[in-house]
Write a structure and sequence with these properties.
The protein is an alpha+beta fold and about 220 residues long. It has two domains: about 80 residues; about 80 residues, Ribosomal Protein L9, domain 1 (3-Layer(aba) Sandwich), CATH 3.40.5.50. Helix content is about 55%, strand content about 10%. It is built from seven helices and eight strands. The strands form three sheets. A four-stranded mixed sheet has the order 5-1-4-8. It has a two-stranded antiparallel sheet with strand order 2-3. Helix 3 crosses helix 4. The longest helix is centred in the first third of the chain and has 38 residues. The chain is elongated, with a radius of gyration of 24 Å. The termini are far apart.
């Protein structure tokens, strides 16, 4: 069990995000410590709610107020970090090197998706002054990658407002590059690499060929 974080330490983390323009590093143990702190407060509240004395009532009220304050602090930390990540994406839109060292894994995913969306938005805006069609830009932004699903994936709606899935383990499908990267990172898919014009891992049995909606659209 991690050492409990104190309320004052939690406020220090909040103030560090508030007083600095750059993302602050969150130690891996930070989240476990906060979870343990919240769990301890809830346990203390439960133990005193059944008691009928002034001290117990005060302990319950104080504990509930602290939990509300903790929730506000966590929301504030999250909000401030999101704003910094979005601003960093806007500022570094054309950069070749992106510093994501201080980001959590899910924050890095947010950052990368924002970069892609901002680039797409810029292309669509600039296209209004040229003869390039929106369909051409959208098609170019959706590079496909062939992957094998390694764990069941429920249906989900992506940033292009399309619904993908559901997918079952061992399904093979072409998916937009950005979606594939996330599924691979989450351990839910592996890339099928071309080798001498053949796709690796093509067994006569065990492969279910699933064509994605986008592949069907491109071939139409």
């Amino acid at each position: 069990m991690a050492d409990l974080i104190s309320y004052e330490e939690l406020r220090k983390v909040q103030n560090a995000e508030r007083n600095n323009t750059a993302l602050q590093q969150l130690e891996p143990s930070f989240f476990e410590k906060v979870r343990e702190y919240i769990s301890t407060k809830k346990k203390l509240i439960r133990e005193n709610e059944s008691k009928d004395n002034t001290f117990a009532l005060q302990t319950v009220e104080k504990g509930k107020q602290e939990l509300k304050n903790i929730e506000k602090i966590i929301d504030d930390i999250c909000s401030r970090r999101q704003k910094k990540i979005l601003m960093q994406a806007i500022t570094n839109l054309t950069a070749r090197v992106h510093n994501t060292e201080m980001m959590l894994s899910e924050e890095e995913e947010l950052y990368n998706r924002m970069i892609e969306l901002l680039k797409l938005n810029s292309s669509l805006f600039i296209a209004k002054f040229s003869e390039i069609s929106k369909n051409e830009i959208m098609k170019g932004s959706r590079k496909l990658k062939l992957i094998r699903i390694t764990d069941d994936v429920p249906p989900f709606v992506w940033t292009d407002e399309r619904t993908y899935g559901p997918f079952r383990k061992e399904d093979v499908t072409n998916m937009p590059h950005d979606i594939c990267e996330i599924l691979i990172k989450q351990g839910k898919a592996t890339e099928i690499v071309e080798n001498n014009g053949e796709q690796k891992n093509e067994n006569a049995e065990g492969k279910k060929q699933v064509l994605s909606e986008m592949q069907e659209e491109d071939s139409a």
